[in-house]
Amino acid sequence: MNIEIWSIGKANDTFIEEGIQQYLQKTKPYCAISLDIIPPLKKTPANIDALKKEEEALILKKLKPQHYLILLDETGKLHTSPQWAQQFQQLMNQGTKTIVLLIGGAFGVSENIKAQAKQTWSLSKLVFPHQLVRLMVSEQVYRAFSILNNSPYHHS
Known about the structure:
By secondary structure, the protein is α/β, with parallel strands linked by helices. It contains five helices and five strands; from the N terminus they run E-H-E-H-E-H-E-H-E-H. It has a five-stranded parallel beta sheet with strand order 2-1-4-3-5.
C-alpha cells in the first residue's frame, strides 16, 4: 500500500521539512509514502468559492480511480492514534492501493472534493498552520504503522 500526503500551500520552512523527512524515512520500511505540495495559485481569485473551485481542479487533475481519498478537515471525525492504525489496517486488508491524505487550502475544499472523499478525518478541534499539519500527519502515519508493527515508538 502507498500513502500520499497532498497539501495545497507554500513550500515548507526548513525546520518543518526536516521533521517531515525524518518521519517519511521512518515510515518507508512499512509502506511507500510521499508528500506532494500543490503550489497555491499564482493569482488568487476574487472570492473564496472561486478559489476553492480552482483548487478543486488542481486536486481532481491528480486524483486517480485507484486513490482512496481521506480529507483532513476540522469538521471531520476525530480518531485516536490506534484508530488511525486500525483504519490503515482495514484499508490494507481491503486491498487499497493508494491512500491520499488531503490537506486542503487555507479556506478548505469545495463541496465536490468533500463528496469525493471516502472519509473525512480531523486532527483536532484546533486550527493549525498547514506546514505544521503536514508534520503532524507525517508523524501520525509513522505512529500508526509503529502500532501495527508492535514498535515501542507509540509508548516511548
